[in-house]
Amino acid sequence: MGTLPIITAGRSTARFPHIGFAVRGAVALSAALVLVRRGLARARDHAERDAAVRSLLRAVEVKDVYTRAHSERVAHASVLIARQLGMPDRRVVLLRYAALLHDVGKLGVPTRLLTKSGPLDPDERETIQRHPECGADLVRDMDFLGEGRDGILHHHERMDGRGYPAGLEGTAIPEFARIIAVADAFDAMTSTRSYRRSRPIEAALAELHRCSGDQFDPRMVQALDAALRRYGWPLAERPDTAAAGRAASPVPVPRLGVDDTHSVAGALAAERHEAG
Question: What pTM did the predictor assign?
């Protein structure tokens, strides 16, 4: 308890009890993350658990402002896909948390790699590709995430088995991971990065369809396409949503009878009620 996997370029992941991150010069985040991990383990109700998740997201924002905004958009797109698929509310809640935390492992990636404007060399690419395992390890105490942890661990797998970290293929890839993969790629293409400008929404959808079957689950791509045409994309950086249709109303969110409509505890309570 209290250790965090730190990723260094060209070296294997190692565990150290007290490691600081180079953030905004040299601000150490390890102590704060230890407290978050302890809070996750001791949390007894949905409010405490939600507060711990928000603490992790704040740590991500300090590390890389883009990653925080990206995670929120990926969560929104993942909910769109889940709604189009008719996923039960309790699973939508877990999926949303997994999508919010899918890149939390980048806390262990050097900031200079996250913000690098040029291409990555092989060692740098290998370093960044370790972030799903780092993220899954970081949330290992969050038992209430359930299948969400696998979504974090496997969101860079490919349908053809050429992804990472496990090289899973087809439906062996957890459903949450297949959803997050599509949402992640969609936002990556429609958002401005340090090394390129954003693409129009219609161009991003065309690329997702082109890569369906090999990289992405065609069912998830079709669900996102249909959801965007139904609801639009209110989080676009610029007015490219015309081709996909503008949202006439907010995207539906789970209503589980708790103060926080996205509470994991609330979702589990609903599941116990249904089981009873």
Answer: 0.75
List, for residues 42-71, the tens digit of each pLDDT value. Answer: 555 667 767 777 788 888 877 777 766 888
Closest CA to 56 of 116, 133, 141: 141
Burial zone of 87 (CB within 10 Å; 0-12 exposed, 13-18 middle, 19+ buried)? buried
In the chain the beta strands, taken as DSSP E runs, fall at 4-6, 14-16
Q: pLDDT tens, 110-124?
A: 888 887 878 889 999
Domain that holds residue 234: 4-275
Q: How far apart are CA 124 and CA 121, in angstroms?
A: 5
Q: The domain that contains 57 carries what CATH number?
A: 1.10.3210.10
What domain count does the chain have?
Answer: 1
Q: Which two tokens stand for residue 153?
A: 């661990």
Residue stretches of the chain with pLDDT short of 50: 1-29, 31-32, 239-276
